[in-house]
Write a structure and sequence with these properties.
The structure holds two protein chains of two kinds.
Chain A: E1 7-10, H1 13-16, E2 24-27, E3 30-31, H2 32-42, H3 46-50, E4 61-65, E5 68-69, E6 79-80, E7 85-90
Parallel strand pairs in A: 1-7
Antiparallel strand pairs in A: 1-2, 3-6, 4-5, 4-7
Chain B: E1 9-14, E2 20-21, E3 36-40, H1 42-48, H2 51-55, E4 85-87, H3 89-95, E5 99-104, H4 115-128, E6 133-137, H5 141-153, E7 156-162, H6 167-174, E8 179-183, H7 187-200, E9 204-205, H8 211-216, H9 219-228, E10 236-240, H10 245-259, E11 269-275, H11 280-286, H12 312-322, E12 326-329, H13 331-345, H14 351-365, E13 374-379, H15 387-390, H16 404-414
Parallel strand pairs in B: 5-13, 6-7, 6-9, 7-8, 10-11, 10-13, 11-12
Antiparallel strand pairs in B: 1-2, 1-3, 4-5
The chains are: A alpha+beta, B alpha/beta.
Chain lengths: 95, 420
């Protein structure tokens, strides 16, 4: 299973309750959009919290692939390869 | 929680969907990740807060305490705020505007920036919620303030900063005994790490899980401006933007005072200022967009170097609603702004202050702030902390031997037409 599900997604504390309490879950390689789809199929309620009704990632959510904000990559079309790590965190305030 | 344990706060409320949450250490809505904001019981506040009650209290930001999110008496930073509002006539002439005021948080107590306002609220609330360790992600000023105020309150502090910060800001955190962690990366990366640490350790992160309380502290700058202007709202206010939070809270302070009848409800415009090397919000504003694209910052205004501003969306909304403008200035224009404020008013602001002055100058020149109007510039931090940015750009000492003849040689070069 881990061989195919080779992309790690870290789940923010507010969503862990919906993901069986897990801090990280694994998905198949593909695009970020496809990873979101996999989360939608597996965990009820996660997708609508991360995306708006048009399927866009909410402005209040930041998503990183290997430490790079996906908005500097190809947004939801960003490719996820085996071994990649995705982090989802709430947008943050100033300092 | 009973009413007496929440002061004048009612709940935390999602800015997006309006769902309510208990007044705990939490900052995002579980349903849409929208930011949570403190909701107040304005009816009860109206019954106790007015010009007379405010004026009878000590001169600190806590004279507006019903509108600040602590349940009981503040325990941290009781002396913070009530900084001078200066009528800046010489700078007004230089910039070509009828009337100009400078709200000078470069001399805020105790760490010389507006951050003491947000920190005194965040730490007072952290103590109420039972935390012993406080932390923050910071571009410098916040780190200084958390370190100092935590020391005075006997709290343990961890502060996280980009490792390339100005030396003044690093030393100003270390001296108080705070644990200072330098991250090799931009502020956005520091903040991202802190979001992860905050998810794991039971600490009060002032700008993460304590953010709803923390951010409200900025309103006090706006309350003071209105009181010091003689209980009125300024026509134009120019505010520098990092996350954009301060701008939205100055706006909220004008809304709250007018809603409570403390000031007349006259129109106001709020203008946002950024450095061209990190201008996600002003770029979006100038392009007429409601959303911004994140950037990788490259500017001497390190305290404003946030490429992914959390309140950028809301700051854009405030500028649009009030008819304000967004503008940005280059590093050279920032240094020029610092010098103008120093030479005209005797105020040495940090780079962010240079951004505010530089942008005000541009907006006045463009006619976006009309020459016959009145404006307030919000100066948020002290120039002594960002010396690195201006060294070599503000002239040089001329060294002489202790000899009158040598001095008069220097004087003659200054005043060639005046003979001794």
């Amino acid at each position: 299973m881990e061989g195919i599900m080779s992309v790690r997604v870290s789940i923010p504390p507010t969503l862990r309750g919906l993901c069986g309490g897990e801090a990280t879950v694994r998905v198949r390689p593909g695009t970020v959009a496809e990873a979101m789809q996999q989360l939608r199929e597996r965990y009820n309620g996660v997708h609508e919290r991360l995306c708006n009704e048009r399927g866009e990632i909410r402005g209040s959510v930041l998503m990183f692939v290997n430490d790079e904000d996906i908005r500097f990559l190809r947004d939801q079309e960003t490719e996820l390869r085996p071994g990649d790590e995705v982090s989802i965190i709430p947008a943050f305030a100033g300092g | 929680m009973s009413q007496s344990h929440q002061g004048y706060m009612k709940a935390l409320k999602c800015r997006e969907c309006g769902r309510e949450y208990p007044l705990a250490a939490t900052h995002v809505c579980e349903f849409d990740f929208g930011p949570l904001e403190v909701a107040y019981d304005y009816e009860r506040i109206r019954a106790v807060l007015n010009r007379e009650s405010i004026a009878s209290r000590p001169r600190s930001m806590w004279r507006y305490r019903e509108l600040l999110p602590v349940a009981g008496e503040p325990t941290v930073g009781r002396e913070v705020g009530y900084t001078p509002l200066i009528k800046a006539d010489r700078l007004a002439r230089r910039l070509g505007i009828r009337e100009l005021w400078v709200k000078n948080d470069a001399v805020n107590y105790p760490t010389l920036s507006f951050k003491d306002r947000v920190v005194s609220v965040a730490l007072s609330r952290s103590v109420e919620l039972g935390f012993k360790t406080v932390a923050c992600a910071s571009t410098g000023n916040l780190a200084n303030s958390v370190a100092a105020n935590a020391a005075a309150a006997g709290l343990e502090a961890y502060v996280f900063i980009p490792s390339d910060l100005e030396q003044g800001k690093v030393v100003n955190s270390l001296v108080y005994g705070a644990r200072v962690i330098g991250i090799r990366g931009h502020y956005d990366e520091v903040n991202r790490l802190c979001a992860e640490i905050a998810g794991k350790y039971p600490w009060a992160f002032v700008n993460v899980n304590m953010r709803p309380y923390y951010a409200e502290g900025s309103k006090s700058m706006g309350f003071e401006i209105q009181e010091q202007m003689g209980w009125r709202i300024p026509e134009h206010t120019v505010v520098c933007m990092a996350s954009g939070s301060l701008l939205t809270k100055i706006h909220k302070s004008y809304q709250e005072f007018s809603k409570l009848g403390i000031v007349p409800n006259t129109p106001w415009k709020i203008h946002g200022a950024q450095a061209t090397g990190c201008n996600p919000i002003t770029l979006a504003k100038k392009a007429g967009l409601d959303f911004f694209k994140p950037q990788k910052p490259n500017t001497i205004a390190k305290s404003l170097a946030i490429g992914t501003p959390a309140d950028g969306f809301y700051a854009l909304k405030v500028m649009k609603e009030t008819g304000g403008h967004g503008e940005d200035v280059t590093d050279d224009e920032i240094r020029e702004g610092i010098r103008m404020l120093a030479e005209c008013e005797g105020i040495f602001a940090e780079t962010a202050g240079g951004v505010t002055v530089g942008v005000a100058r541009k907006l006045i020149a463009q006619g976006k702030i009309p020459a016959d109007s009145s404006a307030v510039l919000c100066i948020t931090g002290n120039g002594l902390k960002t010396l690195d940015a201006v060294v070599g750009h503000v002239g040089e000492t001329r060294e002489i031997r202790p000899s009158l003849r040598e001095f008069e040689g220097v004087l003659a070069s200054d005043r060639p037409t005046v003979s001794a």
